[in-house]
Write a structure and sequence with these properties.
The protein is an alpha+beta fold. The protein has two domains: about 140 residues, Probable inorganic polyphosphate/atp-NAD kinase, domain 1 (Rossmann fold); about 130 residues, Tumour Suppressor Smad4 (Sandwich). The chain is built from five helices and 19 strands. Strands 8-7-18-15-10-11 form a six-stranded antiparallel sheet, with no helix packed on it. A six-stranded antiparallel sheet has the order 14-13-12-9-16-17, with no helix packed on it. It has a five-stranded parallel sheet with strand order 3-2-1-4-5, sandwiched between helices. α1 packs across α3.
Length: about 290
């Protein structure tokens, strides 16, 4: 049964004329559907008596849907902030690729109306969660967690353990640990495989390994990954949150217990997105 959608939060990671135009068009559609619309602080420049500005950090969690205007980077940020707490997310794509934000601006009216009226595909994704030695807290990533060298043009030496079993000792630029969601992002440029979002898997992709036999490794999403670094290193989560690892420190990574729900229009297809975004089926020569 489709979730009833009455309260909607409209979000953007920045404010510019293009985003405001798209936001105002989206608001008009939602208001005409008699929905209660809230604006994220980056959209406070929009003035309309029928719109509500966020006043507390708890208000987004009471919404039935979050609509994000922007690229996949914007989706990643709001997915960690609100999606991890149970609020579904719908994306209007203003970026280049848009595997997560899949509604083009020209389809806003029809697509938003369909989704809000319950005609949508629910797509549940999982986060990776990273635990650090020197902190009792943790951080999450929807795409990937990257461990790389602290120094530019220097190899990072690390030891990899999966479920407490020693896997290998490696030297290289680092390691990309990604979800199926992240398989079409940074991991893809590093030579990693494309993983269908429905698969319960985690991929480990060595970055410029100092070895002729290193290959990407696909493991069960219930696995617990531990990485012990021999030198100082950077840890990047979705390319947005960056932390330091000290020499000799260990990081533990596993699937988070908090999923995120992405909503797509009924005509959404992962393979269609791959064809359009990655150039599948394009002729090498123009006829």
């Amino acid at each position: 049964m489709a979730r009833k959608i009455n309260k909607i939060l409209l979000c953007a990671s920045k404010d510019n004329s293009q985003i405001r135009d798209i936001a105002m068009q989206t608001c008009e559609v939602l208001i005409n559907l008699n929905k209660k619309v809230y604006l994220h602080e980056n959209l406070f420049s929009i003035h309309n008596k029928d719109l509500n500005k966020l006043r507390t950090k708890q208000e987004p969690l009471k919404c039935d849907l979050i609509i994000v205007i922007g690229g996949d980077g914007s989706i990643l940020g709001f997915a960690r902030e609100f999606g991890s707490k149970g609020v579904p997310i719908l994306g209007i794509n203003l970026g280049n690729l848009g595997f997560l934000a899949d509604i083009p601006p020209e389809n806003i009216v029809n697509s938003v109306m369909e989704v809000v009226n319950g005609q949508y595909i629910k797509d549940e994704r999982f986060f990776l969660e990273a635990f650090f030695n020197d902190s009792s807290g943790s951080e999450i990533a929807l795409n990937e967690i990257v461990i790389n060298s602290f120094a530019k043009a220097k190899l990072l030496e690390y030891e990899l353990y999966i479920n407490n079993s020693f896997v290998y000792r490696q030297k290289g630029d680092g390691l990309i640990i990604n979800t199926p969601t992240g398989s079409t992002a940074y991991s893809l440029s590093g030579g990693g495989p494309i993983i269908h979002p429905n698969l319960h898997a985690i991929t480990l992709v060595p970055m410029f390994p100092h070895s002729l036999s290193a290959s990407p490794l696909i493991i069960d999403d219930k696995s617990i990954i531990k990485l012990h670094v021999k030198k100082k290193a950077f840890v990047s989560l979705d390319g947005q949150n960056i932390f330091n690892l000290k020499k000799g420190e260990e990081i533990t990574i596993k699937k988070s217990t908090k999923p995120v729900s992405l909503l797509h229009p009924k005509d959404h297809s992962f393979f269609s997105a791959c064809r359009n975004k990655l150039g599948w089926s394009n002729s090498i020569l123009k006829e």
